User: What shape does this take?
Amino acid sequence: MVLLRQEDDFVYQRLGRSVVTLIGRDLTGLTLRSIDNPGVKLFRERYRRIAAGQTPSFCVMHGVGPSAIGENERLILPVHSEGRPGLLVYLRGRETESEILRSVFHASSDSISVIEAVRNDDGTIIDFRVVAVNAETARRLDMVPDSLIGHGLLEIWPMTAGNGMLQRFSKAVDEQSAAIFESRYMSQGKEVERELRLAPFGECLTVTNVDIAPARAASRSLEAQRNELVTANALLERRALASKASHDALQQTTRELREEIRRNKVLELELIHLARHDSLTGLPNRSYFEHRFDEALKSAGETGQPLALCVIDIDLFKEINDRFGHAAGDSVLREVSQRLSAALGPADFVGRTGGDEFAAILAGREDDASISTAVQRLLRAGMASFALDRQDVPLSISVGVAIYPTDVTSARELMAAADMAVYRAKQDGRGRPVFFEPQLRFEAERLYRLIGRLSKAIELGEIHPYYQPLLDLRTGQIIGFEALARWHHPEMGLISPARFSEALDVPDVAEALTRRMIDAVTEDLVSWDGQAVPTHVSVNVTGFDLRQPGFAAALNQKLAAKGLSSRQLAIEVTETTVLSRDADRISETLAELQRLGFGVALDDFGTGFASLSHLLKLPVGSIKIDRSFVSGIETSQRTAAVVRSLVSLAAALDLDIVAEGVETREQLDLLRGLGCHLVQGYLIAEPMPAGDVPSFTRSFALSPPGRRRLARTAP
Ligand code: C2E
Ligand code: CA
Ligand code: CA
Assistant: This one.
């Protein structure tokens, strides 16, 4: 669409048909200000800036109009139309940048072709092969664009051999220098005047062929007119003056034309750059990176030198984004991309391949050892902390490395191997490089099999909750149970979560497990009803569950349908989960669960890295002190002091505090001394099957508090 400047606003002058479809109505003639849409207000400001700066811009925008919900891309070019300043805007649903370039390419009224050098054995260019031509090129030749692809230049335009054009093209590629020249030659039996603009990139050359005959003809006729006027000068002074004026105008036009041609050329290069680079960091984008990766691999195959692919992931980027905001996240991405670029050698290159994922190719090194040195340098560059708004943001990266041909023999395998390595780097505690080894592939395959088997087991009902009691030391009463998943494997027997929790990183599996556990727990609650059991159970859930829209309401319905109350169920969520991606969303679900009457406990407290004050702001009713603290209080004064202050803080905030993993009498006494009265652990009982819960509770409650021998139940 074309927008023209009108005072401090813009008016839609022309809209393409697909823009009208995308926006949902025809806006021709309207001003931006007259459109009542918050999105429009946003980009009016942006348009103003682009028009003022006179530089093209590419941006992604959200939710423009009634039918264009979602993201769309705009390529905004400052132009003059009818003598007025304005903007030419290419608008489209989010697709790849190269598709935008392609549409500009095909819409051009100039003939544009991309050709690739063909060299003989001693490296001299002897011909070019057609890689792409636009519609106009094909029209001038009266052919279908695709039918030209792959053909030789000399075959299609034999005259290029004789008129010096082949030499000019070769020179542009060999010297990697752009050129503009004019040429006159025979085409389809007619003599044509053309301006040719050459823009090389690697072995390819973009040739833009502009028909300058109309401009030439105009210029010649004006020139003739001027001569006439000059001869008549002596006789007709007034006409001579007019001639002078027209001459000036002509020169002005010529200057403007030249300037226009120069601007178009700059624009063309910019468009190519835009299509291949990420607008935030300026690094090659995924598709361009892959293209260069293929080339690097090809040349490594020829030289026999090893080539390393490093997949680089910023650690805890989501957390940085959530904590400091998106602008901060963007600065981090820019910072990391600069650091990575600076750490690379001359034959290396880096690209941004995903949100917080980068990839680098290390090439031109003699052996694996020098690759290893280069990887270390890359890692060091990524590790220094980063000053943001006068705060120090700790920054670290994980790097997965795979080497061709040491580890693998194809591009696809190399990508997969580097991905496996970076996955392992993240698992192993981040901030370090992991070099691919065959073991990683076996582990990946093993995990893949585990995911399949566990899904099946959940479906077949092989997963059952085991119940571990929570004891209140003040009354000696069992006040509830935690449900822990156990897999009754037909051959391997009882399997604990330690052996399958890895598979819970897969959203579908984690959600299916939660559903299965909640179904089984609610059934058990119903079956215990009336048996004098404290029917309060907590269930462990994951971030995937809490991010589901409507999770809390669905849970509430499920309980109501079985005649149970939300007071009978609590959910446990780990500190790491509440700090993860979409922390706000998770927080909302927790708050809603609390509103509906469910208990919410913060699990594994003290194992994450978040600040205490941050955690205590979360909508939770109790916190569970991790086993590592409990086992530490016997030996470490410091740990005991931490637990004591936690207990008083929890009391001040009216939070229950539960100590997990109590294994010894000493721990129990110390905890009581520190004021922590709710305990759970093997000392009281190991997790037990549902059928054992009623008798366990009854026998436990019968003994007087304090004096009873603590019961042990075999699982
Ligand atoms: P968790 O939620 O921290 O559960 C406590 C774990 O400590 C349980 O291991 C329990 O058996 C164990 N434990 C209890 N008392 C003691 C003790 O005195 N000493 C020692 N050494 N260990 C004790 P389990 O059942 O193997 O579960 C491990 C983790 O797996 C759980 O940690 C929880 O994060 C996860 N998990 C268990 N069941 C489920 C489930 O249904 N869904 C999900 N999403 N995760 C689950
Ligand atoms: Ca738990
Ligand atoms: Ca725990």
In short: Residues 64-69, 702-709, 711-715 have pLDDT under 50 and may be disordered. Residues 226 and 243 are 6 Å apart (CA to CA). The pocket of calcium ion (ligand 3) is lined by residues 603-604, 624, 626, 660 (CB under 6 Å). The chain is about 45% helix and 25% strand.
